[in-house]
Amino acid sequence: MSSTADSAALTTVAAGRTITAPTPLPGKPTLVAGSFLLEYTSLESVLAALKMSSLAELEAVLAVNDKWPFPAHMDGWKQAHDAIRFEMDTLLTAIDKTKSLVESGQGLQQWQVSALQLVTANFYHGVHKHHDHEEEIFFPFMTSRVTVPHKMSADHKTLMALMDKTLALVNALRPSRNGAIAMPVLADLHTTFSVLRLCMRQHLEEEEAVGLPLLRVAFNAKEVAVAEKKILKGLKPADMAWFVRRLAMDQKLAMMRQHHIPYLVQRLVLLPAIRKDTRLYVHAYMQLVAGEALPLKASKQQKHKGGLAACFAA
User: Fold this and answer.
1) What topology does CATH give the domain 11-234?
2) Which residue intervals define the domain Hemerythrin-like in the entry (predicted)?
3) Where in the chain is the domain with CATH 1.20.120.520?
4) What pTM value is reported for the model?
């Protein structure tokens, strides 16, 4: 789903205040370093924040250089953001499909309620953990040499208010043969999550456009690896499975190698966690997007096709 759609009218109330979705800048988004899209932030404001004079200077920082053996789009910070974006798009597709089915006269079935509650709680956990890592480990690490923009941390309060409301709405859903009973909750859920998705996209964009270049100028890859190891130490196998869910298996393995995860840990710990993730969460998403209960073998077949996006190709 494109975030460039008109979002000016999208508002919701969370934590006692009205939150309005951000509006993308007019015109075509600016592509930076072939991998970063500026939809909400102008290139001029990014360069000003970084005290840089040109796009070429910014792209040189994001490219492979003597301090960084891999480009910025392969950074763990960017990869975590990509996981969040992918999950948001998938969850919004699932919510939209469920809402459409109920609007068409179908009731809300137990498997739909259970699946929505399962994947939403998992998304909530993943985002909450990501924010905790930033607040407790990564931002303090960065502030030892650079000034982290205040908004990068301040946004978390708004985002978590929207996350809290999303989770509460999903948990309020109950199976019902009468769609009229479920529709008010589903409509509020759809609007709230749409606002959350756009607010989150703007937030992630700012962290990547300003925060990531600041990091790569002030530190080198070996120094940042120290902070990343602290983050990885606090992750459970299920968290790692969520982190790589969107990737095809060869990409999952490449990501593990990039983060220097030992081979035996990959095979004996993480791959079983990934298989469990497929059985639970990928299968739930596939059912929600298809709008029907599916046999578990469907999600097992999916893992041979690539990431979860392959489920929606048909």
Assistant:
1) Four Helix Bundle (Hemerythrin (Met), subunit A) (1.20.120)
2) 76-215
3) 11-234
4) 0.91
Structure tokens at 5: 């759609």
